Amino acid sequence: MKNAVVVIILLILPLLSLTAVDAVDAGEGGNISIYYFYVEECGQCKDVGVIIEELSGEYPLKVNKFDIGHNESGRELFEAFMQAYEVPIRDVPALFIGEKYIIGGDSTKENIETAIRNCTGHMDYMDPLSMVKERQSTEGVEGITLSLVILTGLVDGVNPCTFAVLILLLSYLLSVKTKKRVLIIGLSFTASVFITYLIVGLGIIEFFLFSGVIEIIRGIVIIVAIIAGIINIRDFWQDEATFTIPSFAKETIASLGSNAAIPSAIVLGFFATLVELPCTGGIYLPILTLLSKTPSKAIFYLLIYNLFYVLPLIVIIAITYKGISTEEIEGWRKEKRRYMRLIGGLVMVFIGIGMLIGVI
Length: 360
Known about the structure:
The chain is built from 14 helices and 6 strands. With 360 residues, it is α+β, with helices and mostly antiparallel strands. α2 (43-56) links the parallel β2 and β3. The longest helix is centred in the middle third of the chain and has 33 residues, at 179-211. 37% of the residues are buried.
């Protein structure tokens, strides 16, 4: 299902702006619609605004302006236009006139006027918003879904690296603390992992959105996901571990875990999450790339993803609190880590191929 905000905008905006839709003759009584996306603080955007005002006196224009810097619905519509017109970069000012788009430094008076003239007198002229609706209706793919977010978050969370760090921490705790203390410190570690992973995810999404090269990044992420998946599958058969916690970090992790205190657990969660990214990034990066295409869903989906990412850690803390020894849990981890890599590798390959062929 498409984003509800975008759908509502796409349905009511033509009525609110009184634009001409579907096929009309733009030169004989029909207005030429311009959809103009800008940021208020952008100097070039102000210059383009002046150009549009000048051209409005010469041509029958219907200008629809959207400040994407301060308006969530404007950002949603901007993203819909970018996807429908297959614009390779995210930049402002951005104008959509008929079948043409003009982005960033190309937003000169000459280019804008040429695009307007190309629409004048054409019987097959179509309002840009109608074109977006038409192209979206023929996409035929869902993109990211809640079920995909939950599944990948859970698979990402079941990884040998994070388990090893938590089990190390719990083993120190059980030797010097009460069960209640084990629960509190263990949950402090988990909360730190959750927040750190969430912040990393939000930062990467922001970078994707404002880098202006999202399609290039998407291609790189697809390659990384497929290669990392194949390596994990190979590691399953050869019983190896290509993606592990770097050796330089293991001593720091052991030192933080041995302190068995809440501040140390929080720092350990932060540090371990960062150094474990080689273990977890193969799944996380593709999901973040997909989320960057639907900004309004990103925070909600990212929260859900991270909740399921830390769920296995909560389960380990719970069963430890109930009396199962860390030695038993560590034995299980070592026995099953090959299969964790296999499942993770298969999911990475699935997501990578799905993104490559446009299924997700």
